[in-house]
Specification:
Blueprint (H helix, E strand, L loop, with lengths): L7 H11 L23 E3 L4 H4 L4 H17 L8 E3 L10 E3 L9 E7 L4 E9 L4 H24 L6
Parallel strand pairs: 1-5
Antiparallel strand pairs: 2-3, 3-4, 4-5
């Protein structure tokens, strides 16, 4: 556990790298980065928290730096950090976060902004040497997770 005496700024860096809340040092599942960091847009990491915790230190740092940019700029953030996704029949506004990658990896995170202006990180993975194959598996999984997210958070009355 990170000593609180080391300060909030150091705790923020720690939380970004190890996916824990700098306020309570709990796992980020159930937390959002909004309120911890000063962005305008909320970013929900819960759906990819387990995957994030399997990554190496450098990859997590790069992902959370990209997430920080997304918090600041929201839907206005474009390439090279955010790209549009084609191929989703259920979620035409699906996007991908394209953080810098360590080594030979090509990390991508599929996400969408929900009705409350929150970026929901749905599926993360490394598409290195898998290009189209990775998207064929990840897009349907992202669609499924988003439908579950909407149902759990907002009920059936919510439009996609």
């Amino acid at each position: 556990m990170w000593p609180r005496a080391w300060g909030v700024a150091f705790g923020d860096v720690f939380s970004r790298v190890f996916a824990v809340c700098p306020c309570c040092f709990a796992d980020l599942r159930g937390h959002t980065l909004y309120g911890i960091f000063a962005g305008v847009w909320k970013v929900e990491l819960e759906p990819i928290a387990d995957w994030l915790n399997t990554l190496d230190h450098k990859s997590r740092v790069q992902i959370l730096a990209a997430v920080s940019l997304l918090e600041e700029q929201g839907p206005d953030l474009k390439r090279p950090i955010v790209g549009k996704i084609k191929g989703s029949s259920l979620i035409p506004s699906m996007k991908e976060l394209r953080p810098g990658s360590s080594g030979r990896s090509e990390i991508r995170i599929l996400f969408v902004f929900d009705p409350k202006r929150k970026a929901i990180m749905l599926v993360g993975g490394d598409k290195q040497r898998k290009w189209d194959k990775w998207y064929r598996k990840a897009i349907p999984e992202a669609e499924r997770r988003y439908l579950v997210w909407l149902e759990e958070r907002y009920g059936k009355e919510t439009d996609r």
